[in-house]
Amino acid sequence: MSTFDEFYDPRRCVNRLAPPVLRGAIKASDAKVWPTAPLAACLGDLERMLVVSASAPLTLDRLIGQDAPGRGAGLVQACVQAVQERPEIGQHIRGAALALKQDKSGRMTAFATEPAMRAVQRGAMVLIRPAGAVDAMETAPASATV
Amino acid sequence: MAIGTNVAPRPIRAPQPPAPAADIILKPPRFGVAIFNNPASPTSGVACVEGQRPKSFEARTELPSDVIWISDAYSAARAQNMRGSDYLRTTPRQIGDDLGVDVRDPVDGLPVVAECIARVRDMAAHAYPWVNMAVDWSEATLGRAIAKVTRMSGDPLAEAVQGALKQAYQTYSTVPDVLRPDFANAGGGRMVTLRTNRLRYAHYLCGQLYPTGVWRSLHRKVIFESPVEAFLDPDRPVLVEATVEFLDRSANAVPSALVAYGSNGSSRPIIRNWISQPELAWLLGHANVHIQSALVCERSEPLPERLQLPRILTADPLYALSVAAGVLAENHWTGVASEQYVRKAMPGATAQPVAEVSSNAVWMRAYDRAYCFQMALEAHRRGYTVVSYGYGSVTVWARKEAYVDLMELAAQLGACHPDLGAMQDRDAVSMEST
Questions:
Q1: Which of A:68-87 have CB within 8 Å of B?
Q2: ipTM of this complex prediction, to 2 decimal places
């Protein structure tokens, strides 16, 4: 690349790369990943439970592998425990309660991969296809994979 | 039987097909946690697998062989199915701290960590197109195993570009010559690592733009004529060869040590002559950067689908609150951002493994360093002595009892690990008992 104009076009450089803004950059990324989930907007507030509450991290970790209503109930339980332990955190997670209420209708209730995940937990036979990693896990004899 | 006796003829059996071979059962190995009495000499300790009671052992050979044991031993102590504390990148002790338990507590701590690690295993088994998990997971770290199955073949980069990328690749930042604060010298301090949410951070890193296409060198005349903005166009990724000087000695200047340019705390120091664009964007604000040469990439694009976080981790935003999901997400991005070893012919007709880095790896590390530097800067401005930063975290010196201050700092930094509330409770209990 030898000419100045070829490399530098002032009109194109409007979008100048800037250093990331603490918290703001990650929040903006959340909005891209979960554009329709009301809970995504208050993850930053809910996270405070992980720092200040002694019981919340474990309760929240156990949400993995549960169905959607179970996850919702687990979140409520974690919030209640956290507020009992540290009342001052109530102001941060109040917004989450509203988001959870809104989220109930749109929540993915049919998380298709959960039966397969339970099968793995039981040590069942599994077949994993390279494409569509999430939905591809099926219980099947390995001899059928060839 | 006597000769001539009439015997009813035996019915002739119809030929039957041979019995089918038993199906081979493909199932992922279980993950367990082994805590040694002395991690430097790993022989005896306590071990636990999810759903079972912890058991003590006198020798590693007493432990079941069908389990991958993630231990607190140093990496040199790996043997067969035993893995070092860095297998999941986050050590069992850190996982315990994040969950609010002490992993060395065999009753209330170890089973909880084993349960969490089992969840990491379940999700990892689910999320990637493994061929044979028993073999694929034999890598030294889970991140490397993930990198192996997600690796994309591409055209090899020219030696000059590869050399520049290697010199722009910095995995971690350690502040050199950091002075311990007075309270630490008096025995009243400790180092605390405050960490962002691993899953959200992995989403952030995987959502950035990465160089794609052919690299070309920029003519020297163009470099000297271009304003600095020209090198900060995100649509045109640039690697620059530059010298960095910290000349500002005013009271408000950021200490040059905090930038930790080329200081990664490892025994293998790196010579940093090259700077990637995301690093250049914040470095220009704190140092004089004299650009000597530059490489420009054709365009920038988001990461390909194969390198994005698996969809199981994005299914529900609530998973961002799970430590297990976060550990897997961190292994994913560190896998993408790791070096790859390829065998190359060397002079003398021998082939040796040589570490190579992709432009994705360099840019991802640079995005990480850019974000973590902001965390370090904020901690420094709030009066904390910063020790190191990287991987979405910052390590600072703090007073032993200053939990409330640390919680406040964590809120300012957007950090959510470790569980300081549980640490405070444990300290209070141990104080009462003494």
A1: 68, 71, 75, 78, 85-86
A2: 0.85
